[in-house]
Design a protein that fits this description.
Blueprint (H helix, E strand, L loop, with lengths): L9 H9 L5 H16 L4 E9 L28 H13 L4 E6 L6 H18 L3 E4 L5 H10 L3 E3 L9 H4 L5 H13 L3 E3 L2 E3 L5 H14 L3 E6 L18 H14 L4 E4 L3 H4 L4 H7 L2 E4 L10 H10 L9
Parallel strand pairs: 1-2, 1-9, 2-3, 3-4, 4-5, 6-7, 7-8, 8-9
The structure holds iron/sulfur cluster.
Iron/sulfur cluster binds next to loops.
């Protein structure tokens, strides 16, 4: 194992995830050095709006929005514009970094994309906030329509390692995800690309996913830790492997492999890293506030307080 954590091989990366917890402080220091160099002490906050919820044709086992899930969630075809713009103003007024907008589903008709692009254009005109959309597989033409409407960043997660993917979803392939990402990259979109840890995968699968993400070189890498949601295929998934130490090792590895990217601790931070936020921010420079697509989370005020109490900075004007 290298001492400097430079140019990590897959074997080095695996030994990081498997290292004894007593070695974690050294790893955190190495991650912090890179975080400090590229991101200073700042933490970005993102707000997530679920613009279309539920009834998805896909069978992603962790997802409450899959048509196969029996989770008790609100389902709707398209969010009311007033709610979308209210969230947009929250991003603007609270000086959050970005408005992330997720839509359930994997494919959209051209009419649906045109209607959505119209709402985005209106939102951008009113609030002028940076927008990122999570919106399944797009055709090149649909992506172009969204680009012209003002979407400059798209989220498309890999979710897990290539070999493990068929265990969490069989209605589309890992390769389809990769080709969608490649197309978006070619078209000049900024990319947000991460995954979920705790799906029953091995540490080797996490390493495979993080190396695949490294080749994509996204602007942002959101790392989620599974929140097993009642009614989903993963409601009984054990999360015993998600100790705070393991979660911190994954986040540090994400930073070491993608030093310049925004490393975001997304869903699960409230569950697995409570009280360890100071250490989390040694690797992470970005979080969500006000919850996730179908799970609640810490409010904006509590998130800002948490960042400041951890000794990091969130730039806000009173
Ligand atoms: S993760 Fe996306 S594609 Fe998969 S079931 Fe949920 S909404 Fe559908």
């Amino acid at each position: 194992m290298t001492d400097t954590y430079d140019n990590l091989s897959k074997e080095d990366a695996l030994s990081i995830l498997l290292m004894p917890d007593q070695e974690l402080p050294k790893l955190l220091e190495a991650a912090y050095k890179l975080r400090k160099k590229h991101k200073g002490n700042m933490v970005d906050i993102h707000l997530l709006t679920n613009a279309r919820s539920g009834n998805c044709s896909q069978n992603c086992a962790y997802c409450a929005q899959s048509g196969q899930s029996k989770a008790d969630i609100d389902t709707y075809q398209m969010i009311n514009y007033d709610k979308l713009v209210k969230d947009g103003y929250m991003v603007k007024d609270r000086k959050l970094a970005r408005h992330c907008i997720g839509l359930s589903g994997i494919r959209f008709s051209d009419e649906e994309i045109l209607a959505f692009a119209k709402e985005i254009k209106r939102l951008k005109k009113e609030t002028d906030t940076p927008v990122c959309c999570s919106i399944g597989f797009l055709t090149r033409e649909q992506a172009q329509v969204l680009k012209e409407a003002g979407v400059d960043r798209i989220n498309h997660n890999l979710n897990t390692g290539r070999n493990y993917y068929p265990n969490i979803c069989t209605t589309h392939t890992y390769e389809q995800r990769i080709s969608n990402i490649k197309m978006l990259k070619e078209m000049g979109f900024e990319l947000c690309c991460g995954g979920i840890v705790g799906l029953g995968e091995s540490p080797e699968d996490v390493v495979d996913m993080l190396f695949e993400i490294q080749t994509i070189s996204p602007k942002a890498v959101p790392i989620n830790f599974l929140i097993p949601i009642k009614g989903t295929a993963m409601e009984n998934q054990s999360t015993s492997a998600l100790t705070s130490e393991y979660c911190l090792k994954v986040l540090c590895l994400a930073r070491l492999l993608n030093p310049k990217s925004d490393i975001r601790c997304a869903a699960g931070r409230e569950l697995y890293l409570k009280g360890k936020e100071k250490w989390m921010f040694y690797a992470v420079d970005s979080v969500f506030a006000s919850g996730y697509l179908t799970a609640g989370g810490e409010s904006i005020d509590s998130t800002i307080k948490m960042i400041q109490e951890a000794g990091f900075e969130y730039c806000i004007e009173s």
